[in-house]
Structure formats: structure tokens, C-alpha cells
Amino acid sequence: MDLFLQQLFGGLATGAIYASIALAVVMIYQAIDHFNFAQGEMAMFSTFIAWQLLDWGFPYWAAFFACIVISFLGGVAIERIVFKPIHNAPVLSHIIVFIALFSIFNSVAGFIWDYTIKAYPSPFPSETPFETTLIGMHQLGMIAIVLAMLGAIYVFFRFTSVGLAMRAAAANPVSARLVGVSVDWMLALGWGLAAAIGAVAGMLIAPIVFLEPNMMLGILLYGFAGAVVGGLTSPGGAVVGGFLVGVIENLASLVPFIGSELKLTVALVLIVGVLLVRPFGLFGRVVVNRV
To answer: pTM for the whole thing?
Structure first.
């Protein structure tokens, strides 16, 4: 029973990270109808920036929030400089650019910081204030920070004028333009938020997987799985899907013939299974185009 609870709590902790990546993926998908294959590498690059700030002597939380701001501005810049000119280009052009960004971020990170594994510090104490081996303080901290971030994002989209404008621009760009919403800038802000969310995920997962240019590849696949399972048209569903993937992945490792070696396969099976049975996800809506 203790092993089951340990894997369950661990799954919730890693699921929080998958939920963050899934939310970032869905935010960009709703804006441009494509997956951002470079989302993980953007998060990795942001985490290296935070590590560099720490290496220069910045306090942890100063580096943490500075990295979020830098990532937000970087996401806006990428949309303005790279994707705005090709907004009406064919889908294949967008995919090629995403793959190019993936390679660029990975190569530049390796060039600047090399490919050696680096230890990334955790801001949380190593010992819990209560006696338990079921979950560590870093895992509890991960869950708390991600839930606080998701709550702030919900309030932003639900109760602020900019958040409502971003929702309107994503749901119906034509109508949004008619009421004076700058759809182009709402799209850029969406990229910035997605980059900032990915940065938080990268900084929280780095103490567990260690910091190196390829650290986010598997995590991005889990994020994609969470987004597909929850629904590509539902940000809230993507969050739930991320938590589900984390829990299922951890519990699957208890099955003898699966173990830890096939944990990534579980995420891929989830993607295929949901697409076969419910292509729009557990919480997504069916999109009907009038012709």
C-alpha cells in the first residue's frame, strides 16, 4: 500500500509538470492550430538562463521570476519576428520552422553551456516537517507552485480585460477584430504566456532530471499526451490530462511486464487510444466547420 501511495503522489508531482507543458501546448495550438514542437526546448533554454543567473550569484527566487519575465518577452519576440511573417503560409512551413527552432535552441544551449549534466538546486528543504517517505518536499513544492500558477492563469483569463480579449481572439478572431481587439498582439501575448509557463515547468523539473540540453524531450511527449487526452480545445482539460498522464505513468511502473523501461510507451499508447476512441479528447469539444 505504501508503494502504491508513493507512486500516486509522485505521479501527481510529475503530472503537475506535464499539466504545465500541456497547457502551454494548448495555448499555442488554439492560436495557430499547430503543435509547437519546440516548446520543450524553449523551456530548457529558459532553465539554462535561470541556472546562469544563479551561477552569477542571484538569489533563487530572483532568478526564478527574472527567468519568467525573460521567457515571456522571448516568446513574444519569437511570435513577432518568426511567426507573424509566415502567418498565412502553408502548414508544412510552420512545421519546418518549429523543427528549426527545436534544433536552434538545442544547439545554442549546447554551444553556450555545453552538453555536460549540471545539478540544478531546489528551493525546498530536503526533509519534510512531518515523518513520511511517501512524498518529498520538492514534489510538494512542485505541486503547490503549479497549482498556484494555474489558479493565477484562470483568474487572468476569467476576470481581466486582457485575458478576456485573448480568449475572444482565440475563439473567434473575426468577431474579436470587429469589437476592437488587436488579435495579432493577443496572439503574441499567448506565445509569451506559453513560454513563461514552460519556463516554470523546466525550472521545477530540472532538480529531478538534472540540467542538460536534451532534458525536456521525453517531458514534451508527456505534455503532448496530456494535451491530447484532456482535449486540444480545452485548457482546463489539458491540465487534467497532464495530471492523469503523470499518475497513470507512475502507476504503470508497478506492473511487472511494464516497469520503468516502458513508462514513455504508456504516454504514446494513451495518445493513440484517445485519438481512436475520442479524437477531440476527454474534455474537448467537437469543432464543426460550416461549408
So the answer is: 0.88
